[in-house]
Design a protein that fits this description.
It is globular and about 55 Å long. It has a single domain, classed as NAD(P)-binding Rossmann-like Domain (Rossmann fold), CATH 3.40.50.720. The chain has helices at about 20-30, 40-55, 70-85, 105-135, 155-175, 210-220, 225-235, 245-255, 260-270; strands at about 10-15, 35-40, 60-65, 90, 95-100, 140, 185-190, 190-195, 200, 220, 240-245. With about 300 residues, it is an alpha/beta fold. α1 packs across α7. About 45% of the residues are buried. The strands form 3 sheets. A 7-stranded parallel sheet has the order 3-2-1-4-6-7-11, sandwiched between helices. A two-stranded parallel ribbon has the order 5-9. It starts with 8 loop residues before the first strand and ends in a 35-residue tail after the last helix. Nicotinamide-adenine-dinucleotide binds near residues 18 and 64.
């Protein structure tokens, strides 16, 4: 079990923004050695510059698509060789998609599953042999509260996050049964103040500005706080970590209410949006398509200040 991150080799995907960037900052402040990856080279550069200032002992960044299995496998081996081992892996990179099943394109569905599920699966399988060699190896996979209950217009996201949960809990059992010391944690964040929805895709008929506004209003936890909660969970060897009071309430509520939770979700959905829980779905307007709305700019550029 990792009790102290100083000098440990820590891998974070999706480190160019949000929770991944905040994890990199927290680990840097503890003097960790960092291997960071993201598809966003500019975001990664910003993270690297700040993490260096915060005290990271060593940082190596890779511009990497976690949905590219061959690239992830090669990166894992190169990382272990470069640092002489790997102690902590956080499969965090993720994207969002708002679309009802019938209107969701196969392309969008596969894009999301490629990153949110397969990216986690590739990262897990690629790094597990290296984590097994560490006396304190620990794997963290980021699911969501949407891995706890079904949400209208979020079928792809929920499918991926439920899959991450089942996959990760199975890996944990396997590590335990095989006598391996590798710790495994599934993380279920509630609403976190990041840019995930600004950078998301939405099917026609969904107002992305409205989705962004709802996510901003519903998100109570900063990325920095989320990172601290996740790393505390790692230090304590937790199987599951719920990030934010909303996540804890949803976990408890869904288990206590059982099958009654589902109609509750529908009622909340109807109140907060025309047909959905988070996103505002509008019937497709008659006549020519409306101009693409100007989205609010990325708001949470720095998870430490939330600015
Ligand atoms: N923000 C929330 O409310 C919330 C809630 C629950 C779960 N999560 C999960 O937390 C994780 C982090 O999300 P966030 O909120 O920090 O979002 P974010 O958009 O701020 O950061 C996600 C990062 O992942 C990167 N990324 C996207 N596709 C990638 C790919 N193919 N390969 C590599 N990197 C890629 C992005 O460039 C970005 O830097 C995700 O898995 C997300 O599903 C977020």
């Amino acid at each position: 079990m990792i009790r102290e991150f100083t000098g440990r080799v820590c891998v974070v995907t999706g480190a160019g923004s949000g929770i991944g960037r905040a994890l990199a900052y927290e680990l840097a402040a503890h003097g960790a050695r960092l291997a960071l990856a993201d598809v966003d080279a500019a975001g990664l550069d910003e993270t690297k510059a700040s993490a260096t200032r915060l005290g990271a002992r060593e940082i190596h960044c890779a511009v990497l698509d976690v949905a590219d299995r061959v690239a992830v496998l090669a990166w894992a081996d190169a990382t272990a060789e470069r640092f002489g081992g790997v102690d902590l892996v956080v499969n965090n990179a993720g994207v969002a998609l708002t679309a009802d099943v019938e209107e969701m394109s196969w392309d969008d569905f596969e894009w999301l599953m490629g990153i949110n599920f397969w990216g986690v699966a590739y990262g897990t399988k690629a790094f597990l042999p290296h984590l097994r060699r560490s006396p304190e190896g620990h794997l963290v996979n980021i699911s969501s509260v949407f891995g706890l209950f079904g949400v209208p217009s979020q079928s792809a996201y929920c499918a991926a996050k439920y899959a991450v949960r089942g996959f990760t809990e199975s890996v944990r059992q396997e590590m335990r049964l095989s006598g391996s010391g590798v710790g495994v944690t599934t993380v279920h964040p509630g609403g976190i103040k990041t840019n995930i929805v600004r950078n998301s895709r939405a099917a026609a008929g969904h107002d992305k500005n409205e989705v962004v506004a709802l996510h901003d209003a519903a998100s109570r936890t900063s990325a920095q706080r989320a990172a601290r909660i996740i790393l505390r969970g790692v230090r304590r060897g937790r199987a599951r970590v719920f990030v934010g009071a909303d996540a804890t309430a949803i976990d408890v509520g869904s288990r206590l209410l059982g099958s009654i939770f589902e109609p509750v979700v529908r009622v909340v959905s109807k109140r907060t949006g025309p047909t959905t829980l988070l996103p505002g779905r509008r019937p497709a307007p008659a006549g020519p398509p409306a101009p693409v709305p100007v989205l609010p700019p990325n708001r949470y550029s720095d998870p430490v200040t939330g600015g």
